[in-house]
């Protein structure tokens, strides 16, 4: 079992977001652990600062959620994604414009996030979220 510390953000009377640290492109970021997200999604603006935009593949699906069903989505193959000691090689993420989330975070004086860790990873690695202990566990 791999255990990772969670940071629980209090959204000032609007709920809570659990965050984990992730390493992508050899750089440390924060990501929201989102059990309601079917897939892991990274922010297009952030991704484009670390990789050539030509590597983003436009999908034929319009993404739903995030308050819209008309947002163009892309995919990107990430060579290595680390969530604590969990290392995932050659992982395909969805890439969307998450600037509205990061703008809201900045207004609350929170660090922007690279994206969300979704059900694809949480299910595959049998994730357990423990809010009381502020831990995310992966059962391998």
UniProtKB/TrEMBL annotation:
One Pfam family it belongs to: Asp_protease_2
Domain of life where this protein originates: Bacteria
UniProt-listed SUPFAM superfamilies: Acid proteases (SSF50630)
Family annotation (InterPro entries): Aspartic_peptidase_AS, Peptidase_aspartic_dom_sf
MF-aspect GO terms: aspartic-type endopeptidase activity
Record GO biological process: proteolysis
Statement: the UniProt record of this protein carries the keyword Hydrolase: yes
UniProtKB keywords: Hydrolase, Protease
Keyword Lipid metabolism on entry: no
Protein name, per record: Clan AA aspartic protease
Organism whose genome encodes this protein: Pararcticibacter amylolyticus
Taxonomic path: Bacteria, Pseudomonadati, Bacteroidota, Sphingobacteriia, Sphingobacteriales
